[in-house]
Amino acid sequence: MPFSNTDTGSKPADLYKATNIDELSLKEKVEDLTDFISGCKFGIMTTRDASSGALISRCMALAGKVTSPFIIPFTSHNKETQSNISQENGGIDLLFHTNTESGKTDDISSDPHINMPFLNSSGE
């Protein structure tokens, strides 16, 4: 039995967990996420350092969101290339500008798992 020293009555103790159980379609979840992220200026990207295993977090400004497949140009190592942005299962791609020679790109190269939480101005 989980420990709790608070009686919440008939309401769930963790509203976010209860909300995650809702049977929403993937399309509705993506739309809700897109709406939420639209109210956020920054996210905190956390990566893992390959040599130490330490978690490293840094603030990242959201440059754009892609919710439908299309081709965007981008510059990499002074060479114009094109990237085909596509989603699987109706997903969303978040775009960030960064220096390709930074530590975060080294971290992602060695371990592509990242965490990208967002916090809006109301603290949600």
UniProtKB/TrEMBL annotation:
Residues 101-124 are annotated as: Disordered. InterPro entries: Split_barrel_FMN-bd, Stress-Dev_Protein. This is Uncharacterized protein. It comes from Cudoniella acicularis. The lineage of its organism: Eukaryota, Fungi, Dikarya, Ascomycota, Pezizomycotina.
